[in-house]
Design goal:
This protein has two domains: 3-176, Flavin prenyltransferase-like (Rossmann fold), CATH 3.40.50.1950; 187-391, Rossmann fold. Helix 1 runs parallel beside helix 2 (45-52), helix 1 (14-26) crosses helix 9 and helix 5 (88-96) crosses helix 8 (128-139). It has helices at residues 14-26, 45-52, 63-68, 71-76, 88-96, 102-109, 122-126, 128-139, 165-176, 212-223, 251-261, 302-308, 326-337, 375-391, and strands spanning 3-8, 30-35, 56-57, 80-86, 114-118, 143-144, 148-151, 157-161, 187-192, 197-200, 203-205, 227-232, 243-247, 266-269, 276-278, 296-298, 315-322, 341-346, 356-357, 359-363, 366-369, 373-374. Strand 1, helix 1 (14-26) and strand 2 form a beta-alpha-beta unit. The chain has 14 helices and 22 strands. The protein is elongated, with a radius of gyration of 25 Å. The chain is an alpha/beta fold. Bound molecules: cytidine-5'-triphosphate. Residues 191, 251, 269, 271, 273, 275, 299, 301-303, 318-321, 333 line the site of cytidine-5'-triphosphate.
């Protein structure tokens, strides 16, 4: 039996939440409901309590409940938090991290996966603000279902209807399905982020890498059971759960950390390693009559070094950030560096620091182009491909 915490928002589609509870109960799940102030104008706590056969929670300020069960506990004892219907307002408050009522406080406090089923007027759904909020939530790992298209209660027609309860129930089942831990027992090494190469004690050379794609890959590998060592350059991202993180600053330190992390079954080198380091001045360089000349020395190529290493991981994957002739350069890089796969991406747009990525997987068998995807989906797909490769007989 799985436990679902169902947050019922304030929209006419709230009546469909009643049917959803019935379907979830039929599937053997326990459902506990939270009704927002808006939701209570459409369905009553009594209806939800009767269908869920449980107490319905409505207010953050119900002190008796805080004594019996704090909102933190309420948010965490479920296996999945579902928001249905998720109104435009609720999605906006979730995206902004607002916690001004019981529902939003639970959503901010939970450590469980969250699934939202939007329902609103077609123009509200297609509004740039709502689309921005949905993209933010998806980037934060919330599963936001696509609304259905059709005639609306308000008389208009278009996308924005709450998906039918059996479709929401099926999505809930997918979210609750146990993840196959295909990489358990495997060690995967990931590098991510930029490197900083000091010029003097206060200045450095760097690049625009945010580390997001590498961190997402480390997280996705851990999600399917891998032991992950993430060697990260200076970034401001939280460590994905289940990942061992080693922080470094320079390319040389990254090379040493990679060496120390061996042996590994696979390595994914996502870091945007600075190609050159500077002969750093021991003291801050002062302004003089002429700008100082920077003497650059080439950094070790960590990826190529790993591909030639006596303890070479079975699968070595590199990334290639290119701004032109993406596929040609990536294919050449694969051969030149002696790696198994290159994940090539075109960084001429807003990839660096952005949430989405369009990548091409370049292997000995050819090139596979993936559609534009959230970085989290690229990560999950790549993790599955790595699991496929490591399952093949060597
Ligand atoms: N890489 C590395 N160590 C370096 C430079 C790059 O491990 N010193 C890795 C990156 O992590 C990435 C891949 O090599 O997986 C591609 O790096 P990139 O900078 O795009 O390739 P380069 O070989 O530097 O080629 P160019 O700069 O000419 O595109």
């Amino acid at each position: 039996m799985k436990r679902v915490l169902l947050i019922v928002g304030g929209g006419i589609a709230a009546y469909k939440a009643c049917e959803l509870i019935r379907l979830l109960r039929k599937r053997g799940h326990a459902v506990r409901c939270v009704l927002t102030e808006g939701g209570s104008h459409f369905v009553t706590p009594m209806t939800l309590a009767a269908l869920s056969e449980d107490k319905v929670y409505t207010s953050l300020w119900d002190l008796k409940d805080e004594a019996e069960m704090g909102h933190i506990q309420l948010s965490r004892e479920a296996d999945l938090v579902v928001v249905a219907p998720a109104t435009a307002d609720l999605l906006a408050r979730m995206a902004a991290g607002v916690a001004d009522d019981l529902a939003t406080t639970l959503l901010l406090a939970t450590d469980k996966p969250v699934l939202a089923a939007p329902a609103m007027n077609v123009r509200m759904w297609s509004h740039a603000a709502t689309q921005r909020n949905v993209a933010t939530l998806r980037g934060d790992g919330v599963t936001v279902l696509e609304p259905d298209e059709g005639a609306m209660a308000c008389g208009e027609y278009g996308a924005g209807r709450l998906p039918e309860p059996d479709a929401v129930a099926a999505a809930i089942d997918r979210a609750l399905a146990p993840v196959e831990r295909r990489l358990s027992g495997k060690h995967v090494l990931v590098t991510a982020g930029p490197t900083h190469e000091p010029i003097d004690p206060v200045r450095y050379l760097a690049n625009r890498s945010s580390g997001r794609q590498g961190f997402a890959i480390a997280g996705a590998l851990a999600d399917i059971g891998a032991r992950v060592t993430l060697v990260s350059g200076p970034v401001t991202l939280p460590t994905p759960s289940g990942v061992t993180r080693v922080d470094v600053e320079t390319a040389k330190q990254m090379a040493e950390a990679v060496e120390r992390a061996l042996p590994a079954d696979a390595a994914v080198m996502v870091a945007a390693v600075a190609d050159w380091r500077v002969d750093a001045a021991p003291q801050k360089v002062k302004k003089g009559s002429a700008p100082p000349a920077l003497v650059l020395t080439e950094n070790p190529d960590i990826l190529a070094g790993l591909a030639r290493h006596p303890s070479r991981p079975r699968l070595v994957v590199g990334f290639a950030a290119e701004t032109e002739q993406v596929l040609e350069y990536a294919a050449a890089k694969r051969v030149r560096k002696g790696v198994d796969w290159i994940v090539a991406n075109d960084v001429s747009g807003d990839v660096m620091g952005g949430d989405a990525n369009t990548v091409h997987l370049v292997t000995a068998n050819g090139i596979e182009s993936w559609e534009r995807l959230p970085k989290s989906t690229v990560a999950a797909r790549l993790a599955e491909r790595i699991a496929d490769a490591l399952e093949e007989p060597s």
